[in-house]
Amino acid sequence: MSVESSRFDLIQKRIGAALLIVCMAGLVSLGGRLFYIQLHMRGPLLAKATQQKESHSVVPARRGMILDSRGRVVAASEHRPDVFVDVGRVRDLAAFAAELSPRLNLPQAEILRHLMARAGSRYAVILRDADEITADAIRAMKNPAVGLADHPARTYPLGTSLAHVLGWVGRDGRGLEGIELSFDRFLRGKDGARETIRDARRRAIKPGDDEPISPIDGGHVVLTIDAEIQRIAEASLAKYVTQVEAENGVSIIISPHDGKILAMACYPTFDPNDVNSFPATVRRNRVVTDTVEPGSTFKPIIACGALEGRHINTTEQFNCHMGSHEFHGRVVTDVHPYGMMDLKGVVTKSSNVGMGEIAERMGNRALHETVRNFGLGDKTGIELPGENAGMVRGLKKWGKQSTQSVAMGYEVGVTPLQLITAFAAIFNDGVLLKPTIVDKLLGPDGEEQRSFEQPTVVRQSAPIEIARYLSREVMVSVVENGTGKPAKLDRWRVAGKTGTTKLTTPGHKGYVSGAYMGTFVGAAPADDPVVVAMVMIRKPNAKLAYYGGSVAAPAVGEILDQTLSYLGVTPDGTIPTDEFLEDGDIHASASPREEDDE
Amino acid sequence: MPASTERTTASPVSIIIAAMSLIALGVVMVASASASLDRPILGPGMWTGPFGRQLIFILVGIALMLGTCRIAPTLLGSQSIQYWLPRFLFVLTVAALAVALIPGIGDSRNGSQRWLRFTPGGIDVGFQPSEVAKLALILMLASLLGGQRSAPRTFFKGFVPATIVTGVCVGLVGKENLGTAALLAAVAFTILLVAGCRVHYLLILVGLACFGLLLLLYAAPYRLDRVNTYKNLWADAQGKGYQPIQSLLTIASGNWFGTGLGTGLQKYGYLPESHSDFVFAVVCEELGIFGGVFVILLFCGFAWLGLRIMTAAATRFERVLAFGLTILITLQAILNIAVVTVVAPTTGVPLPFVSAGGSGIFITCTMVGLLAAIAARGVSVAAHEADDEFADEMEAAPAIVQSAFAT
């Protein structure tokens, strides 16, 4: 090899080596780039990487139950999954529909139509709230094209019974009416959370690094309502409302000594399991939302005020002017003409003229005081949403004619609940109690969290003697000799008062002829009432009957009879209190998890 | 002789071991990166998945490597083979590149027509002519320039044919695959430089290259997009910027020592091409920054061995060939890692040995086989020939070059 040639080779080698060393330096500097990324760029990049992979999902808490006072479940949560189809994965829609048909208990053609309409959809719900058997049948198919989307559903085992008290829950799991709404936060509990790491198509790979937060299940609400008494109240109400072809009606049963509502019913009713099939007017709980003019049922309340203010006494005779008398330019009439009667007689016969005379003695100020004293015009504070305060106008707005109107139960608007609460006060020695419908709140595991055993006293609305005189003498007389005779019972003495109100129509001035509301409030046993019951029947067919004594009093009689029998009240008035009110199995059945342990 | 020990080549075994290390790491990373919720990595369907295919590819590739290593020494010794084999292969490659561009024959993947597909006996086989072009071009240039000393220094006998050959190759590849074309152009340029072309010829080439690049960008505007998105990556994070951003996120997820082999999460659909072009990012995620540096060092080691093989090559042809092969693999690694670390705009260039892909593995393995063969001949020649002149020249060489040649 020549020298020149060797030099040439040497240069080749040198240049080649130099180029390769430059390449190696390039590689090393890329290593430096890695260090740069690690040291100077990592923070925000890592945060972004984590954020795109982690997904936050909610672990729903179980909604608590609603129980009646004896631990019967009246509202519960079940798992009722939706059945959905990933239509895009189905090759042969017809065959698939045929396979689904028996499992879903739906016609094949209907399923097929549904699937065709949602062709290509990844998530077409074909059945909502599937039951356990259907869900099992779908799981057994082991077909990835069909799936179950679990979500808790609310069920009401009593169906239409107690519907207005319970309310209902929306599809999002929030209470929308009744107890479901007013105790929504308590029932709902607190949802948990879970982090899941997902792939780019949002499929779960593994749980995230953060500790999952367990859900806190909702507590249970124990009502003062007794489902059996509720059934009695509903059955009688339905029977008498339909009998007189009335538009609607309400019935309430309250325990006067502790203010506990034992039953609260509206008719017509609805099924909270299927809320959307019923119009809003039917779903409204008229007991707390609607105001009515109480009519003659107001007379015992006014009488309390008259006696308490010593405007009259019990022996005094009032001129009933043979059924017609003009007060302040307005003629007040009675159904039957009466001459002179004492207070007891006026209330017994429900004489408007006699009551007008008494009211005349009292004057507007005392009347107004009496009305307010019995809690009218104030919300009772019951644990139900949408309560109306009623309508008691200020004293200044009352005119001269108001004196007689108010005494006859007009010109004031009260809710059915306010009216029975005021009566309960008379039957409770004049002590006005806050009515309550919730007995206890239980924790998720059935342990008692809060009890409302002690009644809340609002005020002494009337002195004891006056309250007792009205409840044991005057209102007994109403049932024994007066307008309330249809409420009379064989086994117990009943005290009560009838009322018949002319109805107004919104948008029209004055009263509508032929539109009445018959009311009866009754209590038994009269000497120490265990329950007070009220029935209001609105717009009965006037050709059949409309007086409170004829449309509502028999219903109350029936309710009192059955309720007292059910409660085991003996005809002499003794109540086997211990046996019932401290019933041990309230606890046992209110806590189903404990039962499971046994 | 004392001088022969100084210029001893790297042993053929060492370069094969270096390549095998990278291949072994690659197959493990491909297995990990192909994890998905859709199918298991192992099991009945694995032979159609990236990992199963890669296993077959590397077995064939290793066979090619060892086979070439065994056969090539004899072939390299033959002048006629040195002359005819590169030309034959080059013509075939050019034909294949041209055919792949014909719509309906070439198979498009990722929007570019780069593939030729065959279905012999129902088995789906596809290969990328652009991969073969790498080997063909280097062989061709070595053959054109590595013979007579005078060849590279003459304009019409050496420089012009080499330029035409390169131009044809780069042009055909660049129509669909700019990354590989740029790589080929860079490699050809360095080969011309090393082979001894005159500097002013090369300056003409630089001018031509700039002109060609502009022309290519004009012909396929989507490349311009890639350049643009590199500038404003985050403005279009869900669109053009998605791939580089995900690559950075993947590297950042790893920390110094990685999340652990197989535990990376970016491969679950977030990082596109996680088992092929972007496998290096998965290495960084699962084995950490140090894992990535380790891979880089393996490539440095490979380049170092290639350098030693080159300096000890028996003939000029082999020297130029060894240089071309080494710098191609090294430059490709640089380009790939630069893309993954978002130093360069996204181009579809795989990481040699490591990324999944059949054609790439076959060609790189064949290249390593050739390097090993050159090493083997270099040793045997060095054992016979004393080249004192070289040793003398080394004394006078600058320190950096000296250190580069030191063993």
What does this structure look like?
The complex is a heterodimer of chains A (598) and B (407). Chain A is an alpha+beta fold. Chain A folds into 2 domains: 130 residues, Penicillin-binding protein 2a (Domain 2) (Alpha-Beta Complex), CATH 3.90.1310.10; 354 residues, 3-Layer(aba) Sandwich (Beta-lactamase). Helix content of chain A is 39%, strand content 21%. Chain A is built from 21 helices and 23 strands. In chain A, the strands form 7 sheets. Chain A has a 6-stranded mixed β-sheet with strand order 7-3-2-10-18-19, with no helix packed on it. In chain A, helix 2 crosses helix 3 and helix 11 crosses helix 13. Chain A is elongated and about 155 Å long. The C terminus of chain A is likely disordered. Chain B has 407 residues and is mainly α. Chain B has one domain. Chain B contains 15 helices and 3 strands. Chain B has a 3-stranded antiparallel β-sheet with strand order 1-2-3. In chain B, helix 7 packs antiparallel against helix 12. The longest helix of chain B has 33 residues. Chain B is globular. The N terminus and C terminus of chain B are likely disordered. Classes of the chains: A alpha+beta (598), B mainly alpha (407). At the A-B interface, helix 1 of A face helix 7, helix 10, helix 11, helix 12 and helix 14 of B.
